[in-house]
Amino acid sequence: MSELLLEAKAISVKRQGRFLLQKADLQLHKGKITTLIGPNGAGKTTLVRSILGLIKTNEGRIWRSAHLRLGYMPQKLHLDASFPLTVERFLTLAGKPLADWQETLSLTAIDHLLKSPMQHLSGGETQRVLLARALLRSPQLLVLDEPVQGVDITGQAALYELIHQIRNQRGCGVLLVSHDLHLVMATTDTVVCLNQHICCQGHPEQVTNDPAYIALFGDQPERAAAMAIYTHHHDHQHDAHGKIIRITAKHSGCDDSCEHDHHA
Amino acid sequence: MPDFLLLALFSGLAVAIVAGPLGAFAVWRRMAYFGDTLAHSALLGITFGLLLDINLNLAVALGCLTLALILVGLQHKRFLATDTLLGILAHSTLALGLVCVSLFTETRIDLLAYLFGDILAVSVSDVITIGLISSCVCIALIFLWRPLLSITVHEELAQVEGVPVTAVRTALMLLMALVIAIAMKIVGVLLITALLIIPAAAARRVSHSPEQMAMLASLLGAVAVVLGLAASYFWDTPAGPSIVLAATGLFILTLLKPQEQ
User: Fold this and answer.
1) In this complex, is the C-beta atom of B145 within 8 Å of any C-beta atom belonging to chain A?
2) Measured between CB atoms, which of B28, B146, B212 is closest to A83?
3) Could you state, in order of their start, the residue ranges of all structural domains in chain B?
4) Where are the domains of chain A?
5) Rg (alpha carbons) of chain A, rounded to whole number
6) Which residues pair with A61 in a beta bridge?
7) A3 in helix, strand or coil?
8) Which of A90, A95, A120 lies closest to B153 in CB terms?
């Protein structure tokens, strides 16, 4: 196993006499993508916030490797309309000199947005800007809380592909929070299924067949269909490398999925 | 120019300069009600100052600082929505201040001067106090500028990036308390928030960066002070309300600028 970046051991978080998180264990490794899934209210955000040191845990220990640099992409940004903040000014808050931005900007494809006010960005653009802010800190561990929120389905696939690329290029560890598994399966190394406590964890295929996972998410046919669609989509993306092909892959992916439905 | 007008001008400008950036934060962070609460408590500070026979500027500053710290503490408890909490504190402290003033002060104090300001009566020592506090707040703002912006954008992101969020937020509240203490002399308890909010709101329409908005707010505040004092001098209108009205006039002027895009 590669180098351990962060380990949570049996952490519990209790608020108003109720457990939000119970004896959860989590290990995050360099160069690995870990996806945290679970229904609403399962404590995903609580676990992430504990790991980031934003809230105190009631029990358990959290170990971080020495001088661990964290990049955090929050779920949402609530900026008052009265705050005149361009994307460029927002990114300067990460504290990296402008001269060293180019790689991050082209990776997240936000060059052309630098002069736009933050409040004018679309959902997908906002997420890419937030991701860029996290990347500008040259993180060893990237924590992404529901990164595809407010992004349409093609945008979601592109964003997951981007996260995959970042992991490959920079070799950082990634913790991804999602309430939905089928779209992230392709790139993820470990899936952790949470419902107050850790229900099951392992490789995506392993987890989807785990009784605990099925109990939590059900074994609905439409979900199975979505999985099948995705698996197909996934094969397609593995064949197609590079940006331009990715765009066409998106289109054909849509056609494929329609066809696939017929077969299924 | 008569001396009293010169002193008034100097103290008014000193307040307007720091009220600009702090007003911008009040607008961005929606702290207008917080400003009101601190301002209303200033009257209570005056009463204690008179009772204990200490410097009134100091008494008001201490009163505001204490209340700001209490608010920071109460906000962590979160058993009531912040605006409810502020509403309770704002009006209770104002009422308590009014009751205390009438009960405990033997000599009749000029209540109107505290409620609406008495900039034309500032003394040389007032001007020195205001100038000193204003410079200290300016220096603190320059040092804290980046962390202040960071926590205004996203507090948790700032914390993950290593900004001591609670300390910076407390510092902002304390700076605001200090500015309110010195602004009381200029526009009075009831109009302080106007001096913070209106120039910043006026600056919004014509700014493209936080720094630009903060500096323009200072500039517009300064212009409002000059116009208000001029109106007061030539037409004998009350100075504090005239300054606020001048700021409102500038705000309305910026509304005439066509919206971009």
Assistant:
1) no
2) B28
3) 3-253
4) 4-219, 220-264
5) 19
6) A9
7) coil
8) A90
Q: Identify the CA nearest to A163 among candidates A127, A190, A187, A146.
A: A187
Decide which of A117 and A226 is more confident.
A117
pLDDT digits (tens, 9 = 90+) for A10-28: 888 888 888 888 888 898 9
pLDDT, tens digit (0-9, with 9 covering 90-100), for A207-234 = 777 777 777 776 554 444 444 333 333 3
CB pairs under 8 A between A and B: 59
Q: Which residues of A touch B146 (CB under 8 A)?
A: 93
pTM: 0.83
> What residues of B are in contact with residue A74 (Cβ under 8 Å)?
154, 156-157
Q: Which residues of B touch A132 (CB under 8 A)?
A: none
For an interface test with B, give the residue of A83, A92, A175 to mutate (most B CBs within 10 A): A83
Q: Which residues of chain B have pLDDT under 50?
A: 261
Q: Which residues of chain A make contact with B157, given a CB cutoff of 8 A?
A: 72, 74, 133
> Touching check for B92 and chain A: CB below 8 Å?
no
Closest residue by Cα to residue A133 from A94, A79, A191, A189: A94
Q: How far is CA A31 from the centre of its chain?
A: 14
* Whole-angstrom distance, CA of residue A77 vs CA of residue A145: 12
Amino acid at A244: I
- Quote the CA–CA distance of B203 and A221 in Å, as a whole number: 57
**Interface confidence (ipTM) of the complex:** 0.85
Give me the residue from A52, A86, A137 closest to B208, CB to CB: A86
Any idea what the Cα angle at residue B129 is, between residues B61 and B139, rounded to 5°? 80
CA-wise closest residue to B104 among B24, B47, B173:
B47
CA distance A187 to A79: 32
A29: tokens are: 């490794």
Q: Determine phi and psi for B228, rounding to 5 degrees.
A: -65, -45
Residues of A within 8 A of B150 (CB-CB) are 93
Confidence of residue A197 (pLDDT cuts 50, 70, 90): confident
Q: What CATH architecture does domain B3-253 belong to?
A: Orthogonal Bundle (1.10)
Q: Which CATH superfamily is domain A4-219 in?
A: P-loop containing nucleotide triphosphate hydrolases (3.40.50.300)
CA neighbor of B111 nearest in space, from B127, B86, B94:
B94
For residue A80, the chain B residue with the least C-alpha distance is B28
Q: In this complex, do B153 and A72 lie within 8 Å of one another by their Cβ atoms? A: no
Gap from B158 CA to chain A (nearest CA, Å): 9
Residues 6+ apart with CB under 8 A from B195: B15, B16, B19, B23, B183, B186, B187, B221, B243, B244, B247
